Amino acid sequence: MGKRILAVDDSASMRQMVLFTLQAAGYEVAQAGDGIEALNWARTSTADLVLTDVHMPRMDGITLVRELRALDHYKLVPMLVLTTESSQERKADGKRAGATGWIVKPFNPAQLLATVARVI
Amino acid sequence: MTLDPEMAEIAKVFFQESREGLDSMEAGLLSLNAATNREDIDSIFRAAHSMKGGAATFGFTEVAAFTHRVETLLDEMRTGVRPITADAIQTLLQCCDCMREMIAATEAEQPLDQGRIAGLDSDITHILGEPAGVPPGAPPSAASRAAPLAVSTQEAIDDDPQVKGWRIDFAPVADLLRLRNEPARMFAELERLGAIVTQADVSRIPSLDMLDPEACYLSWRIDITGQIPRRALDDIFDWVDAGCRLEFTPIGVSPAGAPAKVDSQAQPANIAAQGPSRPEREAPPPGAPPPGAAPHKTTGDPGSIRVSTKKLDNIINLVGELLITQSMLSGCAEGINQGGFDRLRQGLTQLARNTRELQESVMQIRMLPISSAFNRFPRIVHELSRKLGKKVEIRLTGEGTELDKTVLEKISDPLVHLVRNALDHGLETPEQRLAGGKQETGTLELAAAHEGGNIIIEVRDDGAGLNKARILKRARERGLVPVDQELTDEQIDNLIFMPGFSTAEQVSDVSGRGVGMDVVRRNINDLGGNVQILSKEGQGSTIRIRLPLTLAILDGQLVRVGKEVYVISLLSIVETIQVTRDRLNTLVGRTEVFRLRDEFLPVLKLWDQFGVEPDSRSAEGSLLVVVEAEGMRVGVLVDDLLAQQQVVIKSLESNFKPVPGIAGATILGDGTVALIIDVADLIHAVFERERGALGRNMGAGLPGARHRVSGTSLGMAS
Amino acid sequence: MNTATTGNGGDKVATGFSEQYLTFMLAGEEYGVDILRVQEIKGLDKVTRIPNSPEHVLGVINLRGAVVPILDLRRRFGLEAIAFGPTTVVIVVRVAGGQDGRTVGMVVDAVSEVYNVDAGATQLPPDVCGSVDTIFVKGLATVEKKMLILLDIDRLIGDIIANESMHGFAAA
After folding, report:
1. Tens-digit pLDDT profile for chain C (172 aa)?
2. Would you give the DSSP letter of residue B438?
3. Chain C residues inside the 8 Å CB shell of B675
4. What topology does CATH give the domain B370-548?
């Protein structure tokens, strides 16, 4: 069975792009539109990787990463933050919250797959 | 810009989403004021931010660049660096328009309006207080991913052909493994760049009792050989360099070349120093928003899907057929009365209910809340009241009221016209209002509600109301009303819907002259609805629009003429009267009119009009169905009234062509086709004929005014 | 005249590219329509008249939920009207036009045969061709010593629907 990835983004087009790319590469993908939705899903489901956008309504991606790390079954799951920022302080924020790394937007499908392959 | 087919498909979602995002940005901007809370402006920012990210991802760089500028301004506003001023909001609203155009142009693969973009860009520059001439901030690209450190040195080394490899000293933070940054994977990536020799330093491993099994105590020295650009190494260590010790030393360069060292321990100090003066960009908003509080959500409900209208129409057609079959089976069951068939009848009753419920829920899929039409108005009112120097507060009620997508799309423009009209002619200036003993700020209200199978939309203002004396005078001047004709207040008000009638003493650039209220009424009639105005001088006006919820089904009255059955929309029927000889007069030549209370209705014999053989050619004993469209009324003579029922509207055009006087067709329970009468079309035909007949018989002296008066008397009382 | 023939048995193989035609009778003439265009053949049910339409537009019927016009070819070709008899049928065809094609019923005296016609063996029509204006004729073919008039139904039906003026209201 393929690895399962939880993709969180409030933008439907970004979700679709991520979904399409990852599915085409044989991953199983679960989607959520914001942090709350993702967290609710994650409470009862496992994933091999979490990809999350930062700016989202209700719960942002940094908070999501922090909350997920607090869950036993996500303690050791790689988490990547999708961000348009390349500044060090943003990355530091992500790291402090518990993110494994980040993907800087914009990225193309090949870049996404290469980055995902670095962690799972 | 060409995308592969899948990406092009997803780009469509991006365009749609951007439009929704812009709508929500616009709504958010319009609600901004001194008391705005952080969450409101955050959601505006988020909409811009998402759009920028998407545009960049799909390669729409100009959209991304412009949106980035907007985002920068919004970011400063939300972090309190930049005050929220009316000018800034105005500029941002214009930016929304511009972005909307950019999206539309990009989707249509048309060139962008560079002048406009540059103009707004310089407006933003001005607000940001940046020196003019600073090039618009480009969106972050892959190129900017490399850490901005010692660039010149680094590039020099990148270019240095003497670099034979690198020595990497890497002492990661203890959290390395906890965050799932696996050193083994990083080494594997390095190995892809060149041969590596790795030495692990185990000296920091504590004694077993002190050991945290999840922590990383190792550090490494890695020698990698090959002509490897420094950036490739940065990429590999990008995620782990913060807080750790990471040094890259080139191997094989001349001693003069300065070693590029990265001591990441210095980083946190830098951040601390810069922190307070720089706006936070990705920090969560202080005070987590309550769950579910997403007033300006940019996406639809997570549980919603986009379905093409064509697919839905297909299902709706099938359900329509199911309805017909059910009705046909019921018809069969009527004949089976003798014993033992009760269960069949029961089953049919159940089928009837299921079918109806299924139809209703399928129809629901096409239903959208009217908010998507209403939401444009705060913006329109904001801009117009500025332009007109009026103070207007807009209220929206019943935004959740749902109606068919097609009806919704088609009602939008008439509503805009009515709102513009109310602002331009209805509401007074602050001075006029104060002088009239009213509050300085006028109110414009848009309200929607369901009533039976219809939706009622009202546009209310508390402005000056219609000037009845002036309307009547104008109508008389134009020969629309004979001098001696007395009209009720209602009748006078509704004269404004007459073709060519305009009460504006001067044409303003707000209401313009292009479309009149007659066009508004025609559009509403075309949707099978009607419109009325109620007005009190000095107190305001209410325009009331009644529309069917959907164009796919219609509440119909079946009428019979001879052997033919026709359907008339119940919405257009005012009343039905048994005809008596004494109330039927031949006015001029062959023109017949029917006296209904104090007005004379032109009579239309459906059998003559449609060329069918009636039960009897004498009108006596026939039924007169009084119908109304576009403010004109006609009595239609038919032989009999049959059932009232909902009918599924079928097009005559799809396999044939439009037929004058016929709006479409439907299939009755017995499987036969019945035609649906186009009331407006019939009424036009009658008035054309009347005019012609009168012209021939009476010369130009009488402009057919009596008929037209009866036509204009909107039957709100009846 | 070169002909390729075969009855519905199809035992003779036509040379070259052949097309199948459904033929029908109209006042003694035999006409053919491309069989791929024929949806079904049915009896004449109750037709709902369309007001103010020319007499060869008999009206519309319900064909499994679709509203389909019924055209009387006899009247359209100016032939003597006859009472509908036991062989009178409606041939439902799919033609070009409208938004994405139209479904239309044609009333004919009787359905005849299905023939394979060699595409290379048809002739251009002479100026007059049975009762039909030659612009509606794709070609002539001789099959089993009979002459078939192969109709261009897209053109014929399109012309009937588009060009026949509906009587306006004023005239009513």
Report:
1. 444 443 443 334 444 567 899 999 998 889 999 999 999 999 988 899 999 888 889 999 998 888 999 999 988 888 887 888 888 999 999 998 877 789 999 999 999 989 888 877 778 777 665 667 778 888 888 888 888 899 999 988 988 887 654 433 333 3
2. S
3. 48, 50-51, 60
4. Heat Shock Protein 90 (3.30.565)
Choosing among B359, B657, B668, B694, which should be mutated to test the C contact, i.e. which has the most C CBs within 10 A?
B657
Contacts of B267 in chain A (CB under 8 A): 88, 92
Chains B/C: 3 or more C-beta pairs closer than 8 A?
yes
Is residue B593 within 8 Å of residue B694, measured between CB atoms? no
Q: Do C169 and B660 touch (CB under 8 A)?
A: yes
Interface contact flag, B650 C53, Cβ < 8 Å? no
- Best CA proximity match to C87, nearest among C144, C26, C35: C26
Instruction: Tell me which chain C residues have a C-beta less than 8 angstroms from the C-beta of B320.
Output: 65
Distance of CA B36 to the CA centre of its chain: 25
Q: Closest Cα partner for B549 from B307, B353, B364?
A: B364
> In whole angstroms, what separates CA B6 from the centre of its chain?
26
| DSSP letter (8 states) at residue B315 | H
Exposed, middle or buried by CB within 10 Å (0-12, 13-18, 19+), for B530?
buried
Annotated domain spans of chain C? 18-161
CATH class given for the domain over A4-119: alpha beta
CATH 3.40.50.720 given to domain C18-161:
no
Q: Which of A5, A10, A13 should one mutate to test binding to chain B, selecting the residue with the greatest count of B CBs within 10 A?
A: A13
DSSP state string for B518-552: HHHHHHHHHTT-EEEEEEETTTEEEEEEEEES-SS
**Residue B428 CA, distance from chain mean position:** 29
- The answer to whether B321 contacts chain C (CB < 8 Å) is yes
Instruction: Name the pairing type of β-strands C29-34 and C146-151.
Output: parallel
B586: Cα within 13 Å, side-chain hemisphere: 4
CA distances (Å), origin C121, targets B103, B347, C113, C140: 57, 59, 18, 9
Alpha helices (H) in B563-642, listed in sequence order:
606-610
Whether ipTM exceeds 0.95: no
Please say whether the structural domain B553-712 has been given the CATH code 3.30.300.180.
no
- Order of strands across the sheet with A79-83? A28-32, A4-8, A49-53, A79-83, A101-104
Cα(B411)–Cα(C148) distance, integer angstroms? 55
Chain C segment 95-124 residues within 8 A of B by beta carbon are 98-99, 102-104
CA B668 to chain C, closest CA, distance in angstroms equals 9
Q: What are the extents of the domains in chain A?
A: 4-119
Q: Which CATH class is domain B5-139?
A: mainly alpha
Chain B nearest-CA distance from C74, in A, is 19
Q: Does A48 touch chain B (CB under 8 A)?
A: no
- Topology of the domain comprising B151-269: Alpha-Beta Plaits (3.30.70)
> Using the beta-carbon criterion (under 8 Å), do B673 and C172 form an inter-chain contact?
no
Question: Domain coordinates of chain B in residue numbers?
Answer: 5-139, 151-269, 309-368, 370-548, 553-712
Cβ within 8 Å, pair C52-B688: no
Closest to C33 measured CA to CA, from C133, C164, C137, C109: C137
**Pairing of β B623-629 and β B662-667:** unpaired
- Rg value, chain B, Cα: 36
